[in-house]
Amino acid sequence: MTRHLLKLSDLSAAEAQQIIARAIALKNMRDTSYRPFTGKTLAMIFAKNSTRTRVSFEAGMAKFGGHALFLHSGTTQLGRDEPISDTAKVLSRMVDAIMIRNDSQADQEDLAANSRVPVINGLSELHHPCQLLADMQTWFEHRGNPKGKVAAWIGDGNNVCHSFIEAAVLFDFKLRIATPKGYEADAKIVKAAGAHVEIVHGATFAANGADLIITDTWTSMGQEAETKKRLADFAGYQVDADLMKRAKPDAIFMHCLPAHRGEEVSAEVIDGEQSVIWDEAENRLWAQMALLEFLLGA
Ligand code: CP
Ligand code: NVA
Hints:
2 domains; alpha/beta; Rossmann fold; binds phosphoric acid mono(formamide)ester; 298 residues; single chain; binds norvaline; five-stranded parallel beta sheet; globular
């Protein structure tokens, strides 16, 4: 059966741990002749902007001997209403894997259901699983196994937050979530995580004694018209130096990027000593190559 990664919980805990261990090994490997993807092609469909996701998949495929095809959805026939199921049938006869970034988890599921090759969610309105593979790799590298630790999500209960919730289950840590009213994480995703997730009121309650502090933009792609309202609604949710002081002294700070200094995070924190954002961004490459090895059986 073809495996896909449409959300992090498509993996078992053992598989997720195996992919992270492999990502760390690939990063440390000095063998430049390693070419597991020779002759293989990854099609990347983007309906939204990207820097990290596009470059990490494309550079990773090249590094490991393969090829990545950038397909802006608007300039493919998807932009002229060709059904995504037909697109899946055609692409999967030509390429070895498909990555898609759009704002419809349902369309991604349709794509996967009609594809002979693995489909990877490169971000949807509901999930961002590749980001979490990189984040977990980064947490392991900086502080060891996250099992039993506490992460604090402060800000919007969005796609990245949902994947963090699923990571809490797979990697057995506690995720405390503080969001303003009206920006809560999806109730079904929270419920499925059981005791791994704790919803708290106010950023300081989430940050108290935490091992990891995470946030994301207050205005995700596609929500630009709400920017002004969101800036007002998220007042009190900025991750600043005072909030970081609530966490453990050796706590680290993560952000999937792109970031908005002075909004969801102060410059002092994101550019400060506890921030691991550049490793986190780099790890997109290693974690995704480990994922592709896993999905393609390389
Ligand atoms: N974090 C992330 O997915 O970045 P891009 O939007 O640049 O791909
Ligand atoms: N929540 C953000 C993540 C960007 C990588 C968005 O959806 O725009």
